Amino acid sequence: MPGTAYNFSVSRLKKIDPILKTQHTMSQKPLSPQDWESLIEDFQHGGSRRYKWSSIPSLLDLALSSILKKDFPLKIHLIIFLEEFSDNFLDFDEHFLERLIDTLKIIIQSPTDNLHITLSLKDQMLVSTTSIFISSTHQFNIIIIESLVEFLLILINRPNHGPDRQTRGVACECLRELERSYPCLLSDIAGHLWSLCQNERTHVTQSYMLLFTWVIHNIVVHNVNVSILNTSVPLVPFNVPQSLLLSDVCSSNSNSNGTNNYNYKELRRAMAFLLESPQILTACGMVEFMAMIIPIAVALELQASLLKVQFFGMVYSHDPMLFHVVLKLYLSFFDAFDGQEGEIARRLMLISKEAQSFLVFRLLALHWLLGLNQLVLSGKGDKKKKPMAFDLMGLSFYPNVFDPLALKALKLDLLALCMESLKSKSDSEMGDSVEKVFEDGIVSVSAYKWLPPRSTETAVAFRAFHKFLIGGSSHFDTDPSTTTTIMESTIFHSLQGMLLDMMLECQKLVPVIVAFVDRLLGCQKHCWLGERLLQTFDENFLPKVVMDYKLASCFPLFDRIAENDTIPPSRLLELLIKFMVFLVEKHGPDTGLKSWSKGSKVLGVCRTMLMHHHSSRLFLRLSRLLAFTCLYFPDLEVRDNARYDY
Amino acid sequence: MSGSGGGCGGCSIRAIWILNSLDAVVFSRRFPVVEKRWRTACRSENEKVTENSLSYSVFSLFPSDSELAAAFVERKQREGSARGFGIRVSQSSVGSDSWVDDPITRHIIGLYINKEEEGDNNLLWPLILHIKGNYCILILPLVEPRHVKAYARLCQRSDCGNAVGADESLSSLLVDLPSITGAFMVAHAIGDIVAGDAVEPEVLVSASPSVGGLLDSLTGSIGISGISSRAKPVAAPVASSIPSSTAVTGAVAVDAPKIGSRPLDKDTLRTFISSSMPFGTPLDLSYSNISAIKVNGFSSSDLPPADLKQPAWKPYLYKGKQRMLFTIHETVNAAMYDRDEIPDNISVSGQINCRAELEGLPDVSFPLTGLNAAHVEVLSFHPCAQVSEHGADKQAVMFSPPLGNFILLRYQASCGHGPPIKGFYQLSMVSEDKGAFLFKLCLMEGYKSPLTMEFCTVSMPFPRRRVVSFDGTPSIGTVSTTEHSVEWKIVSGGRGLSGKSIEATFPGTVNFAPWQTQRLPSSRSFLGSIADEDSDVETENSNNMVNMEEFIMEKMINDLPPVDLEEPFCWQAYNYAKVSFKIAGASLSGMSVDPKSVSIYPAVKAPAEFSTQVTSGDYILWNTLGKCPSAAAEKV
User: Fold this and answer.
1) Phi and psi (nearest 5°) for B156?
2) How confident is the model over A377-389, as a mean pLDDT?
3) Domain named AP5B1 middle: which ranges (chain A) (predicted)?
4) How confident is the model at residue A394 (pLDDT cuts 50, 70, 90)?
5) Residue of A180 and B520 predicted with greater confidence
6) Do A520 and B160 count as a contact with CB atoms less than 8 A apart?
7) Which residue of chain B is at minimal alpha-carbon distance from A601?
8) What is the pLDDT of residue B230?
9) What is the average pLDDT across B22-35?
10) Cβ neighbourhood burial of A19 (10 Å; 0-12, 13-18, 19+)
11) Is A358 within 8 Å of A312 (Cβ atoms)?
12) How far apart are CA A36 and CA A48, in angstroms?
């Protein structure tokens, strides 16, 4: 609830003598612009550099005096500084805020000379003053807040006035920010704001519209009983509404008895007005506008189809923010968009293909598609909806050759998701195609087969293997999909085959495959898959290994097999014996350290086996291996170690 | 979901930082109003924590510039680079972005802030990372504390990683957070200002090379010094918005001018930020509008329209002689294989740029025809356009134009005319340092006037070899070499190629300096540690290599560095020739605008001019005797 953070209970009566303050300030030695610059830098840097300025008393007063000095060059810079650190200054008291508002008035009322007093300065002063008011945590003197609001209202009360239109727009933004922080602050004067909004025709009409929309939003969300047609309360002088002064009325009202206090008819008229001309908004303005309109529409139970007709066209826009607005609308009103899922999904898929767009927006489009699918499937809203029309367009997610690898990776994710929807169809019909899609999809990163194992293509390919393999099997305990189903799947079988071929054709990929297996072994839910892969490698890879020095790259795999007590050690031991024989035979003057390093590795695997297998089937072969090594191995250290183990 | 008072449905920015190449913060801006909303949300979220001691609290404080920079450096070390690994690799640690295993974590990052008051390792997320020139731009949008918690769970998970379409995922967070999307828009707008290329799309007229931007239309084509938004003469922002064409393609574009060496214009940035998002909530990110307002202001003679509301995106109304200009820009990407088993892949990315010098707030409409023939696949429009349902072959576009140049619509299409350059490129290494090559090309086959090829250059890049000399004479054009490439200019200079096709052949040899093994710093490698730890993995099979070529390739491939995820593949692993060209006269897709069918309401006499420009993007001839990247043909 945004409405709880403020309190207007401070007395209206206190008014500080301005002369006292001025005298106080006069006693300070002013800082030079260079001093200010380094002070600002030190504050931004933080830590000890900031503390060194704490000895200067009345920094804030000094700042305000500098801002008012005619030829002070850093006015805007200094104002922004005060704003940025407003929540850091402990001496942001009423005195200061009063002086601040006086400074604001002086600057706004000074004629613009485009040198010292510029429009930018005026705008910044309005924004920063408002910002400081909102973000200071102190309880405020109501007189001060009323005086700020009143000043802003006077500014905006000149619709269509030419030269100061930008400043009027900024003042609207200030009021909107105040209304956002103190909900219902302006609800009594909503009628005036509406008529200003109707009258304004310059480009700042967006700011008037957003201000009015916020006021309506708060009236509806906080369930306030006011008439927005009635303009009997004058715009100025401005008084904080009585309801806000009493206590936190807004929040208590909203849920008191479930009845609506607000005037339904009037609010619907206001809505009709607001929905008349959204085309005047910028894309950013539209995001703000819809963030307020959606909750109003929900509360007033407006027909969502109206919103759909008005805003659905934005899915054809190339501005990602507008597209996202439609997605939010869709998620809020599932039912009104019945039948439109396919079009949304199609648009997202097309956006991901727009080569002119920045990569990140193409990635976002695919994420949105995945996310929508998930939110819809997880049954947000009352009804379960069917997933996005993946099966219809699944195959258009094949990566293009020039797609950046990041995009290829996400497109492969989507292909994996499509596989999930294919799987739900009858197996005979789709069995082949699952494998085909998998293989075709991987073509785009197939260079992993010959590039160095550290290549990005390899990383993307193995990431895709993982996605295709575990498919839709989530890590929730409640998920009924079992590892057995995955093990029986076509994907698992073809992946198994692929990995085997890969190891035989290209041994340098073995460490990558081991990392892949490790990933599965480390997962509580999918460790069986890793085990099954190791079993397959033991059965089908070990017998086919060619004896040469390159076998070294396979040792990580041997280690994993040795560690796993579900795999009988016989095959591995046979292989290691053969390898030791090979090493002994090949040993010669040019061998260098090879015999030593490879032999030590073999012994390492043997040790791993001893630690993990507690069965007699190990001992016969292991003792043969060690005995052979003791007797014949050319490297003395290895031989000694073997004897020690034996 | 949207009941949070617009807090989450909208887009607000908590802070902006810009870091230089030394990882020092050179600019920062925070928005205390937004920060206050964040703190309030954290307070109520952390109150729940006491009720349920299992969950943990959210980091509610805000880092100083030095704390942020320290955290950024720490992440860079942990994740190997400023962007990070992006996908889960063996070096990824639990809690890191790459643990989430998603490429978008190279753009949306999390930092762990160490702060005295709240202890170490406080997660700050989501930070939008946009790198432009030498600067890293970080934008922190406002999200709800529960989103940060959800992300923290994703990067701490102990299982093997996300299943597609299941589990709690990054995708559902991203759908739920328009503020992230908005923050990317902010990041790009700021990036353009930092790099000094915030220019409008290019629109061509027959009389002069290009037409200026918004300010020019206000000031009668007299650019205001310093902030003129006149489009660059040749390199249009159109090009700068096409990542593929600006990205370093192999090492072809190494000599492109480096942006980012310019000093940061902090005043311009400060003004832009204050006007575009005064309270941290973006209102308008159009740099040209904002700077026009800053420079020109408004006078009492700037009257709003009598009966219409002036849109926020059109602060000024045009006055003067009325006309409309349309320019179709197309970029052709092609992967030409000349192999039976892999079909060639040619695609056209196009857009219609527009400039409407019309008084008042008129609506403009015209029909788009020939969509079917052009196989136009994507159509997305400028927000000022109203889009009716797509017809099969015909679609009317109606729009209320903004000031200045803008991209009216974008499309993807096939190449209706067939490839402008066909043929093959063969390169064969006859010894370790000598390659024999042959080009046989046909240019503009079947292309009729007015299609004119203004220039055409074929470049053979050898980024990893130094070219010592070359031998051979092309049947047409001239040849030159650079240190790492051979350039063949087929069509150049004033005489374009029009109304006929030409054949061009070029046999020759190229000699390289002896190959030197390049050792990689292992920190850059992707799966480095697992592959490299076995330093005695042999490459001793040089003798059994079938031929010289494979041997050389193998040797060169072994120390190829992994490419960034933003690249389509490892360019350096392949031999290819890249064709650059420019074609004028008509579009290649068949997309066109008939100036006579442009109608304006309320009716006014304004001539419409139309022009086209086709340039090459990645137009690649893969060496038919070597390896080549490919992808399975798409099925729709």
Assistant:
1) -110, -5
2) 56
3) 264-646
4) low
5) A180
6) yes
7) B534
8) 34
9) 95
10) exposed
11) no
12) 17
